[in-house]
Amino acid sequence: MKKVERFECEKCKELFKTEKACREHEAEHQRIEKAEDMLNKGCTLKEINDNCHLWKGDILPTKLYSVTKDTKFENAAYVLNKSHISTIVGFTINGSVIFWPVDAGKFNKNNEQNLIDATNHHINLINLDPIIKLD
After folding, report:
1. Local confidence pLDDT in tens for the 135 residues of the chain
2. What is the pTM of this model?
3. 69, 81, 79, 87: which is closest to 131 by C-alpha?
4. Which of 2, 23, 49, 129 is 20 to 30 Å from 123 at the Cα level?
5. How far apart, in whole angstroms, are the C-alpha atoms of residue 90 and residue 92?
6. Cα–Cα distance between 36 and 120 in angstroms, integer?
7. Which H or E run contains 52?
8. DSSP 54-91
9. Count of other CB atoms within 10 angstroms of residue 49
10. Which residues of 22-44 are buried (b: 16+ CB within 10 A; e: fewer)?
11. Strand 7-8 vs strand 15-16: parallel, antiparallel, or unpaired?
């Protein structure tokens, strides 16, 4: 038998072989938290990306620059048999956008079922092309 030492992310409990890898991962959580704070304050995706660099190579399509938490998308996510009209409620570390139906009640990231429902339907930014923006 051998002793194994791992480092645990304080946020998500993921285990890492090195302290450096764990610290880098925790920094990603902080970056996402900052981005979500900016989103909740009404910042645009362009402003968020300029500050937090959510998408490597800054691949944010120009047509999404002015998108905010209040922008509605058709068919972005179909969760819990609710509306096809969704808004952005957050981001994932891998660069996906988390959508939530407007008539599914308030999204709560601390609610395990809300998070499961939303992340099962997150969409990578590159896949946003066919989504129709409604205003």
Report:
1. 988 899 999 988 999 999 999 999 999 999 999 999 999 999 999 999 999 988 766 577 777 888 898 888 765 445 545 556 778 888 877 777 777 777 777 766 655 555 555 555 444 444 443 343 333
2. 0.74
3. 87
4. 23
5. 7
6. 19
7. helix 45-52
8. -STT----GGGTT--TT-EEESS---TT--SEEEEEEE
9. 20
10. beebbeeeebbeebbebbeeebb
11. antiparallel
CA–CA dist 76, 99 (Å, integer): 7
Token reading at 43:
């910042």
The encoded tokens of residue 112 equal 């395990």
Tokens of 25: 């991962």
What six digits make up the tokens of 79? 């969760």
Q: Which pair of structure tokens corresponds to residue 75?
A: 């068919």
